[in-house]
């Protein structure tokens, strides 16, 4: 029997946009995990880097991902990347000391412009905490774990990602980066 055409199959050979080694993309230009550097690419990443300061589904913007790769570091979003991702996707996750933490936004009204400018409710929660902020800037400046500001403990944060798509496996265990 002839194999059915599947546009989502990673069967087009291309250079990885981060490490330049051979990787494979589907017919939409999205790749599986690059077996050389672990990056997943998508056709819009150059554009998203400039416009939104992120990439999808990796979150780390492409330009920073290239720097991190060159420096031999793991891909990891900065706190600012994470906030950019939050405004793009509105539901984010990260792990801290093995515990999953969730950040999501809620619109205060139907005013999309206000929302995009950061005038929204930001909820930050885990099994142990629940914090609610009235503006994105307030979240950025005040969100904390046991009194230590999130922006100051970001070095301890593991696998900041978009909810759902950034997670392989179960939420109780941080995915391997
Ligand atoms: Zn690669």
Topology:
Elements: E1 12-15, E2 22-25, H1 45-51, H2 62-70, H3 79-89, E3 91-96, E4 99-107, H4 112-116, E5 120-125, E6 130-133, H5 136-142, E7 144-145, E8 148-149, E9 157-162
Antiparallel strand pairs: 1-2, 3-4, 3-9, 4-5, 5-6, 7-8
Zinc ion is lined by residues 16, 18-19, 21, 23, 34, 36-37, 39.
Kindly state the percentage of residues in helix.
10-25%
- N-to-C terminal Cα separation, in Å? 39 Å
Quaternary structure annotation = single chain
Radius of gyration: 18 Å
Major sheet summary line: 5 strands, antiparallel
- Please give the number of β-strands: 9
The molecules bound to the chains, other than polymers, are: zinc ion
Q: Strand fraction band?
A: 15-25%
Total helical elements: 5
Order of helices and strands: EEHHHEEHEEHEEE
Give short descriptive properties of this protein.
five-stranded antiparallel beta sheet, 177 residues
